[in-house]
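Could someone model 3,4-dihydroxybenzoic acid with this protein?
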Amino acid sequence: MTTDPATPLAVDQFIVGLQPALPDDIVAARARSEAAGLPAIGVSSEQGRFLSLLVAATGARRVLEVGTLGGVSALWMARSLPEAGQVHTIEVEPAHARIAQENFSASPHGARCVLHLDEAAKALARWVAQGVAPFDLAFIDADKKNNVRYAELALALARPGSLIVVDNVIRSGRIIDVACTDENTQGARDVLSWMGSHPRLALAVLQTVGEKGYDGFAVARVQA
Ligand code: DHB
Ligand code: MG
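Reply:
Sure, complex below.
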């Protein structure tokens, strides 16, 4: 099958158009992120809706996010949380964190977003050592070379039944190109093989197309 590269983007726009208008806080957060010059690598609208749906479907109360960027994905997840729920989201880049905090402050769901300006591996290791309450869902969407480290720490912070979701695991199919050794592709390969062979993880990998090109999500459920 060949697909005109323009088609997935047009279909994504069509799908967005047949649904209710995007939430005001999401539109505003995307606009503020773009105006501030943040990289245009955040989740698409449908990916955001999918994350929101996962939080609702699992009844998650404590969500972990590695890689906040402008906070758009955190807001998508926060809007499905119960009143007392929280998204703990970690960002290492101060310029990104500043915009994310502005986006949270401007959103009716932002009070449930707790931003941690830190190196994710350090913050997560500290939380493991402190024995914080487990997270119900983790979304890993940061520097890809540390994917496995983040997934290991997310598993250490999970409970049986928790979900671990990793973004960007297909990279336009480059994961099967042995000549492609860039750290983003290698990070995707490494986390897929780690998750795929882990005895405590039941994994499904979904290839995706659309506004974000050809990529994919890894979704794993933590077993007992
Ligand atoms: C990149 C990172 C992302 O998280 C993403 O969703 C798309 C692209 C990148 O660094 O290229
Ligand atoms: Mg991503």
